[in-house]
Amino acid sequence: MADEALFLLLHNEIVSGVYKSAEQGEVENGRCITKLENMGFRVGQGLIERFTKDTARFKDELDIMKFICKDFWTTVFKKQIDNLRTNHQGIYVLQDNKFRLLTQMSAGKQYLEHASKYLAFTCGLIRGGLSNLGIKSIVTAEVSSMPACKFQVMIQKL
Amino acid sequence: MRDPNNQLHVIKNLKIAVSNIITQPPQPGAIRKLLNDVVSSSQPAEGLVANVITAGDYDLNISGTTPWFESYRETFLQSMPASDHEFLNHYLACMLVASSSEAEPVEQFSKLSQEQHRIQHNSDYSYPKWFIPNTLKYYVLLHDVSAGDEQRAELIYEEMKHKYGTQGCYLLKINSRTSNRASDEQIPDPWSQYLQKNSIQNQESYEDGPCTIISNKNSDSNLLSLDGLDNEVKVDGLPNNFRAHPLQLDQSSDPSNSIDAPDHVKSVSSLHETKKASTGIIHGACLTLTDHDRIRQFIQEFTFRGLLPHIEKTIRQLNDQLISRKGLSRSLFSATKKWFSGSKVPEKSINELKNTSGLLYPPEAPELQIRKMADLCFLVQHYDLAYSCYHTAKKDFLNDQAMLYAAGALEMAAVSAFLQPGAPRPYPAHYMDTAIQTYRDICKNMVLAERCVLLSAEILKSQSKYSEAAALLIRLTSEDSDLRSALLLEQAAHCFINMKSPMVRKYAFHMILAGHRFSKAGQKKHALRCYCQAMQVYKGKGWSLAEDHINFTIGRQSYTLRQLDNAVSAFRHILINESKQSAAQQGAFLREYLYVYKNVSQLSPDGPLPQLPLPYINSSATRVFFGHDRRPADGEKQAATHVSLDQEYDSESSQQWRELEEQVVAVVNKGIIPSNFHPTQYCLNSYSDNSRFPLAVVEEPITVEVAFRNPLKVPLLLTDLSLLWKFQPNDFSGKDNEEVKERITGEPEMIGTEVISEFLINSEESKVARLKLFPHHIGELHILGVVYNLGTIQGSMTVDGIGALPGCHTGKYSLSMSVRGRQDLEIQGPRLNNTKEEKTSIKYGPDRRLDPIITEEMPLLEVFFIHFPTGLLCGEIRKAYVEFVNVSKCPLTGLKVVSKRPEFFTFGGNTAVLTPLSPSASENCSAYKTVVTDSTSVCTALISSASSIDFGIGIGSQPEVIPVPLPDTVLLPGASVQLPMWLRGPDEEGVHEINFLFYYESIKKQPKIRHRILRHTAVICTSRSLNVRATVCRSNSLEDEEGRGGNMLVFVDMENTNTSEAGVKEFHIVQVSSSSKHWKLHKSVNLSENKDAKLASREKGKFCFKAIRCKEKEAATQSEKYTFADIIFGNEQIISSASPCADFFYRSLSSELKKPPPQLSVHTEKQSVEDAVRLIQKCSEVDLNIVILWKAYVVEDSKQLILEGQHHVILHTVGKEAFSYPQKQEPPEMELLKFFRPESTTVSLRPSVEQLSNLIKTSLHYPESFNHPFHQKSLCVVPVTLLLSNCSKADVDVIVDLRHKTTSPEALEIHGSFTWLGQTQYKLQLKSQEIHSLQLKACFVHTGVYNLGTPRIFAKLSDQVTVFETSQQNSMPALIIINNV
Amino acid sequence: MAVCIAVIAKENYPLYIRSTPTENELKFHYMVHTSLDVVDEKISAMGKALVDQRELYLGLLYPTEDYKVYGYVTNSKVKFVMVVDSSNTALRDNEIRSVSAGDWRTTPGWWMFRKLHNSYTDVMCNPFYNPGDRIQSRAFDNMVMSMMIQVC
């Protein structure tokens, strides 16, 4: 993983870039999130391929989720997921109390409405990683107060 | 029955097989043939419901049952020849049958028994084999009730009883019904179901040829024996085949008594007859049900009285032998050696050990006794005993290395172990394996090995050890027998799919292998089936190579099976999806495909043409063009670049054309574009608007461009390529006869179709074909697709000219083979996205590109340009000719031409003479209309005048739309008109594309097509020529002739900017003309020197002219009248008021006029001020237009030509410079950030200073030098006249102030001060245009040079409150010299 | 030394197949395709195994009379299949030992597959490759070729 600062800044630029292009009307505004999410998806695919190169084969779904929370998260965001919860019917909640991509913005409620922009990419990242590991899923994120956020992973049973 | 140690042992479901004693061991060849037949004869049932197996993402439907395999197994086992090392299919008992009708049945019996004995113990009968030396004989007296009489039979039976004992003999009565046809039918043939099974025995016996009776008979007895089965089959639960197998192996035989008993024939004759009569299908038609019972009963008797006791006895004997041997010695092995020492010599056995498996025991050898016993036990289903025996036997055999025997023992041991009720011991699979190995490797006996494998596989399967079974089966597949390998492989495949985690791919793979072997074994159907099965797995999973291969094979197979449609579709698959095959492969595929395809088409020659898969057609790229192709240019005759398929689509140009057309249509329809107007589209493509049915004109060709693509690596050759269409003629619309037409069967008088005889598409090439249709009839045409013969190029194969493809040989390519087929063109319209549900759902609009409506005739115009130049100087005038030809059959009218650049060309105004001398004659004579003038009357202007109306420049009329002055407004069919056309090089240099759109209509109005158009794009390259600048200013000079101040000076600067090395030598200004409503050039002021103004390259010249007002009357009367004044430098006058000069002038003028004049914003409250301002402005306005006409002397390839041209300068205001070419203002540098929108600047009401200064014209008149004797008189007074003339149309109050407002000090010392004497301030009012003179006196005190221009004049409109005071400083200083004398 | 090297997508369609004797390419296609069954089998078996045995390398899938088929599955369920001429013993013999020793990493087979995996990862991270397409990358191709000709 590149130097994190670089990643963070680059990420910000991506977000703003996408939204700019939306203003120029190249993408209609609603699709920005999707666009970011798709970017993340592709990146996630690539990353997971790299990261899992040396790991042992995964035992099961939970095993994979743990990998995401520990190794994957650490390599990308320099910290682990603080808390992983699941009802054992394929819903996982990954909680990060100090999510890297939000820390630059002020804590608390300010900019809260902008948070979604800065989570879309990561949602894609998770989804892409999982899909490359053969798990179809829907990843959503929610923020209650700023640097902390929750990612909810819903596994699509096929 | 009881076993050796007297346990009661139940035998279920015993089967007895009976066969002729003479039967020979079946020949291997015969067996193979037989097996083949059996397999091929049993095919999967049609309505067979295949069960779907879902494995991973595969859903395969596979029929679990393989009847062909079962029947194969059955037959195989039955056809096994009996061998020495085992006794399972050796004969156990013998029935001796004699007919009661014989003379001496008893003799007969004894004879038979001897016969039997002879057969058994005599060596020359190697076959059949007998189980034990003393075979059970069972004597049967056969009594034909219909023939013989009861008593006799009974008697003989009694006799027999005496002789052989009651259990040894039996009286069987049959044929109690007389054979009458009628009654035959209702009793079903009781035996038919069995005959099939034992057909081998029948057949064999047929082959080894003793008379049919026997065969007939033993077929009877077969059935009888099998009846025994049939009343117990229900009882047993086990799958039939397991049981069936071992029990079928024992056979008892009945003696052939017929050989020496001809009289016996009669006994069964009735049977025989019925058999014959009913063509051998119905057996035992003469048997009544009671007979059946009797027969059954007989078998029961035989088994219970005869057979079983016999077996029981034998077993017991054998058992005793063994027991005794055990008693003698511990070691069973050595004991046997001793016991039966006579039988076999040890050392013989030793050296027999050396040679391989084939250690042969003599039939009575003790080891075999065990084996025998084992077999017997086995036969009577006493499996555990059997197992133990086999086990011991196996030991022995292994000890003396009798591999064959050992293998047999092992095999049977395993089987019996498996068959043991409740399976006390696990199934010893390794026994089987070793057995198989031994059979195959050591004693090279494939048949036995196969049997072994079959058994073992069945057993394993029943234990659901599928993988093992599969392995076993696969191991046995070998080169020597394709059929066997195929069957086994198929079984293996089924094993794989039946595993608890099904191995789909293995299944598929082995299926393919099986298919391969099947096809090698000639089992086409099975082969095909296998491949199809496998296909399910490979299909659409991205394994293209495999998929292709399978498809190919399927294609082949189904072709050989004449399932042509399947074949075609299979091959289609290969070709369609982009195959990764090599070129050679594809070639092969293609040829195969074509070949098959041709056969199909031959099968149904008059069926609908099949859809061909190749080449691909990019339907959306299809283009349709209406009209003839463009004529190539001949000589200087150059046809209009209309529209053609060669021009590719260009959006903004097409937009331009559309605008042009709208303009002209608007003009035609009094300025409003009709609502139903649609721009005419001659070429339809994916960009054009295809939502409406296009209109085509009858007798005009329709060209369809189809875009083909060849996906293959091999070239494709299309022959007889033509369009396929459907036509509904309008006139007999009552019965809409739609004939889908093909070239061969079409009606040419309806629509003519062009055929491309050969069209080659190279490998992976995209190519377009242009196909023409010639509608000869009005109606609705629907172009459906294309028909062609698809073929490939071959070395030099000649095609066999079947009817489908005529004229293929003619080509330079000789094609291997080709099939006729079609491909449809369906074009999807644009995606609709207007309404809500259209947005949500994906809907596509129609595309009517290919459905033109053929309308009745329309005129068709062709335009040619003659002498049309490609290069011009800016402003150059060139005369060209246009030829209009009406090539249609109906007259055209209303010809107009519209262009965005009307100033570029003219056909000459109405005044122009419309009798053009032919283009040839008009070579290098002037484009202008000239008259020779005497050179005396030079510098004064020659006046002429013309109205702008004559030149079509009315106010408000669209200058772009120019009606073409046809001599009599219609152009008759076939007629052609040549018109002169003057061109003027545009003022900007560079390349100009100028679009002409010719508009014309038919004489008779038509509902569908109002008008037609013809396009032309002219490309002109202009190079710089002259650059003219002009200014006008008021002359201060005194008014001499026709005073009343209003004459001005016009300064014209011209520069030769032609930098071209093209050899433009020099420009001669031949004439300068003015054209104005109120002004005219009067005379040229300064041309003392050069008479005719030459301008060499980069030279500048300046001209000065005097312009005067026209006479009031001519100025006032007609406003639209323009006065032309020509000032000539040459010796001939160009009449500037005539074509073409005036035309171009007006055109340029009109393009000027199009610019809106500076409109003053209306402020109601200061109304007065405005018109004041307007007045003031007016007096500084002039509308003087200068036309400079020039000749350029050009040297082109050593011959000089003279080019002519003209430039226009339009002067609006005094003192302002005007240019002949539009000033190019450099584009404003783009600002990065826009902070605010610039608000519109309001025009200020104050007239500018210079405008005001033009209000009054002043001039001082005085002697230039004045001599005064100062010594006499110290004061010198000089009279000075000040002329004030009012230029405006209103009264002006003027204040003249003479008081010295000392100007700047240095002005003082330059010219010393003087004083005005007398009244120093004058107030006076000037009427409009009035000239007033003031007499002033200037007083000087000493000599010097003085500037008199000191008076300050203030002017104001007299009726105005507000004063616009201006100091009317006269421009030049008025100097006076005072001398002392 | 390998005669055929294939990369199979997790949906079991070929992303890449290259075999040296091109004439019987078809045979190898069949072989690889069939081997997938075994791969699935092995994976399902692998699931239960302990962590340390959960190795990406599957070792020998199955031997045919004249070829040996080896398999490897990435965590992203992408399969690498390598067909090796059974005449060449380099793989097999020290395979046996080390596999019995329970660690694959000493076997040349393992190393080869590692190489394969690495360059596959590069392909995945190549912006011009979008996952699931056939692999066109020249680099990957060369690597495979080198593995085919390389003798060991």
TrEMBL record, chain A:
CDD domains, alphabetized: TRAPPC6A_Trs33
The record's InterPro entries line, in alphabetical order, gives: NO_sig/Golgi_transp_ligand-bd, TRAPP_component, TRAPPC6/Trs33
Where does this polypeptide localize? Golgi apparatus, cis-Golgi network
Main location, first listed in the record = Golgi
Family designation: Belongs to the TRAPP small subunits family. BET3 subfamily.
User: Which protein is depicted?
Assistant: Trafficking protein particle complex subunit 6B
From TrEMBL, chain B:
What are the transmembrane regions?
none
The TPPC8 C-terminal Ig-like domain covers: 1255-1357
Q: Which residues form the TPPC8 second Ig-like domain?
A: 874-1014
**Per the database record, which ranges form the TPPC8 third Ig-like domain?**
1017-1209
Residue intervals of the TPPC8 first Ig-like domain: 646-873
Q: Read off the Pfam families from this record.
A: Ig_TPPC8_1st, Ig_TPPC8_2nd, Ig_TPPC8_3rd, Ig_TPPC8_C, TRAPPC-Trs85
Q: What is this protein called?
A: Trafficking protein particle complex subunit 8
Which gene underlies this protein? TRAPPC8
Automatic annotation (TrEMBL), chain C:
UniProt keyword terms in alphabetical order: ER-Golgi transport, Transport
Among Pfam families, the record links this protein to: Sedlin_N (PF04628)
The entry's protein name is Trafficking protein particle complex subunit 2-like protein
Hey, which family's this protein in? Belongs to the TRAPP small subunits family. Sedlin subfamily.
Q: Where in the cell is it found?
A: Cytoplasm, Perinuclear region
Record Gene3D superfamilies? 3.30.450.70
Q: What is its main location?
A: cytoplasm
Superkingdom of this protein's organism: Eukaryota
